[in-house]
Specification:
alpha/beta; 2 domains; Rossmann fold; globular; 6-stranded parallel β-sheet; 6 helices; Elongation Factor Tu (Ef-tu), domain 3; 6-stranded antiparallel β-sheet
Length: 250
């Protein structure tokens, strides 16, 4: 595994998705060290002298592919003091610093995997999804929910992979105004499942899952309340704690 390095980057683009949710793309001044899908980085918007101490920072999942070491992508939702500071100060062309890679939230290729993402939590899975090919034999299910359809990030990427990888199943949830989303999904040649409301295991697993497969691995990334609720529900349905992996920053 790569040794973490500190690298200066410039902000190359910022996408405002509404609802104070952003995707930021960074251009590193040199190629980043090798990382694995699911790992994370530290980002600081403060001035940093490489000879001094690392300043205050926040962690973000790396949403870009390991095959593109000259670009880094992260997503964030404005919820606390530091992300408020990011919203105020980040601008195209500004320099920031990152250090990476960190973390062991890494999807194992031998397992049947079920990925639960809430909001910007999808960024923990995008690099893994990008790596899937049409020859993939691993059963993968992505369950992704957000407050509104437009906050379901990376829809094009997900739908492209869904059309290409037959072992990938996808279910979208939107808490409000989901009718248009479901109509859009129904019009596709291969349609993912689409639901109104918050992520529900009874909706995803039909008939309702009485007990989970002992070979399945469940990966959860998103808001703490979502993770707590889904973790508890999985355990009541027979999942062992070893089957449940959690990625939570808040």
């Amino acid at each position: 595994m790569s040794i973490p390095r500190k690298i200066r980057c410039s902000v190359s683009s910022i996408v405002d998705h509404g609802g104070r949710v952003y995707t930021v793309e960074l251009k590193p001044e040199r190629p980043v060290p090798a990382f694995l899908p699911g790992q994370f980085l530290h980002l600081t918007v403060d001035d940093f002298d490489p000879a001094g101490f690392w300043p205050e920072s926040r962690v973000f999942s790396i949403a870009s592919s390991p095959t593109e070491p000259d670009r880094i992508r992260i997503c964030y939702s404005v919820k606390g003091r530091y992300t408020q500071k990011m919203q105020r100060t980040l601008a195209v062309g500004r320099d920031v610093w990152i250090k990476l890679p960190y973390g062991d939230f890494i999807i194992q290729p031998k397992d049947e995997v079920i990925l639960f993402a809430g909001g910007t939590g999808i960024s923990a899975f995008t690099a893994f999804l990008l790596g899937l090919t049409a020859e993939n034999q691993q059963p993968v299910t992505l369950v992704y929910g957000a407050r509104r359809p437009e906050l379901l990030l990376f829809q094009d990427l997900i739908l492209e992979q869904f059309a290409k990888v037959l072992t990938l199943n996808v279910a979208f949830f939107a808490e409000s105004a989901s009718e248009a989303l479901c109509e859009k999904m129904a019009g596709l040649r291969r349609s993912p499942a689409c639901f109104s409301g918050r992520i529900s295991l009874d909706s995803v697993f039909r008939p309702p899952l009485a007990a989970t497969s002992p070979t399945a691995a469940f990966y959860l990334a998103g808001p703490p309340l979502m993770i707590a609720a889904l973790s508890a529900d999985l355990r009541t349905r027979g999942a062992n704690p070893e089957q449940i992996r959690i990625d939570a920053w808040e």
